[in-house]
Amino acid sequence: AITTALGAENGILVRDRLALEEARHIDTIIFDKTGTLTEGKPHFDRVVPASGWDETRVLQIAASLDQGSEHPLAAAIVAEAKRRGLMLDPPTQFESASGIGVRGLLSGLHVALGNTALMDEENVAWEGLSTQAEPLRERGASGMYLAVDKQLAGIVAVADPIKATTSEALVQLRVAGVRVVMATGDGWTTARAVAAA
């Protein structure tokens, strides 16, 4: 009763006192990355255009397509395009491709924005920019490939900063002997960069 009262005073509500009592036996905690360890408010990082493309055009196309998405990464891309004053075209078709990206039609062009699995589905040769994508991932950014009519146009990178309180909380858990695991849908390189940070 004292513990639940103290918790309530500090904004923590406990539904099951027995679960709280059993918590002392926890030896491992698995945290979701986005919005738990990170701010959950991704921000635009940069554009890496493919040969023959420029940064502004890549961002404009990606943001135009992403207007139809509710994903936080999409919101960061759209916000950056608006900050730069870019005119966005409404997509005439839009489809979310089950966790690997989005695709649709923009001014008659077939556009796809997502990871390498989506590029493979679209038969887009993405390997030409893979060496530029790796440094982005090593900094903890998520790089999404943009393809226009089956041709690679560039990479749009978005980063989600780590919460200021995360490091101290993890230190305290480790001192208490708790093993900490991070769960994320990010690729291995990005996940390792965020974990190291």
Structure description:
It is a single chain. By secondary structure, this protein is of the alpha+beta class. 39% of the residues lie in helices and 25% in strands. It has nine helices and eight strands. The protein has helices at residues 2-9, 17-22, 33-37, 55-66, 72-83, 116-121, 130-138, 166-175, 188-196; strands spanning 28-32, 43-49, 93-96, 101-106, 109-114, 141-148, 151-159, 179-183. The strands form two sheets. It has a six-stranded antiparallel sheet with strand order 2-7-6-5-4-3. A two-stranded parallel sheet has the order 1-8. Strand 3 (93-96) and strand 4 (101-106) form a beta hairpin. Helix 4 (55-66) crosses helix 5.
Query: What percent of residues adopt helix (DSSP H or I)?
Result: 25-40%
Tell me the number of strands.
8
Beta fraction: 25-35%
Separation of termini? 38 Å
Strand line-up across the major sheet? 2-7-6-5-4-3
Q: SSE order in H/E notation?
A: HHEHEHHEEEHHEEHEH
Low-pLDDT regions? none
Largest sheet geometry: 6 strands, antiparallel
Label the structural class: alpha+beta
CA gyration radius, whole angstroms: 20 Å
Q: What global shape is seen?
A: elongated
Mean pLDDT: 90
* Number of H- or I-type helical stretches: 9
List keywords for this structure.
single chain, 25% strand, 39% helix, 8 strands, six-stranded antiparallel sheet, two-stranded parallel sheet, 197 residues, alpha+beta
Question: Which helices and strands, and how do they pair?
Answer:
Blueprint: H1 2-9, H2 17-22, E1 28-32, H3 33-37, E2 43-49, H4 55-66, H5 72-83, E3 93-96, E4 101-106, E5 109-114, H6 116-121, H7 130-138, E6 141-148, E7 151-159, H8 166-175, E8 179-183, H9 188-196
Parallel strand pairs: 1-8
Antiparallel strand pairs: 2-7, 3-4, 4-5, 5-6, 6-7
